[in-house]
Amino acid sequence: MSLPPEKASELKQLIHQQLSKMDVHGRIREILAETIREELAPDQQQLSTEDLIKALRRRGIIDDVMKELNFVTDNVDQELPSSPKQPVSFDRQSTLKKTNIDPTRRYLYLQVLGGKAFLEHLQEPEPLPGQVCSTFTLCLHYRNQRFRSKPVPCACEPDFHDGFLLEVHRENLGDGTRMADSTTMLSISDPIHMVLIKTDIFGETTLVASYFLEWRSVLGSENGVTNLTVELMGVGTESKVSVGILNIKLEMYPPLNQTLSQEVVNTQLALERQKTAEKERLFLVYAKQWWREYLQIRPSHNSRLVKIFAQGDCEDHANLLCSLLLGYGLEAFVCVGTKAKGVPHAWVMTCGTDGSITFWESLTGHRYIHKPINPDEPPLAEQPKPLYPYRTIGCVFNHQMFLGNCQPSDAVETCVFDLNDESKWKPMSEEAIKSVCAPGATTSLPPFPPLCASTIDASVTSNEIEMQLRLLVSEHRKDLGLTTVWEDQLSYLLSPALASYEFERTTSISAGNEEFQDAIRRAVPDGHTFKGFPIHFVYRNARRAFATCLRSPFCEEIICCRGDQVRLAVRVRVFTYPESACAVWIMFACKYRSVL
Question: Per the database record, which ranges form the Centrosomal protein of 76 kDa C-terminal domain (predicted)?
Answer without folding.
Answer: 455-593
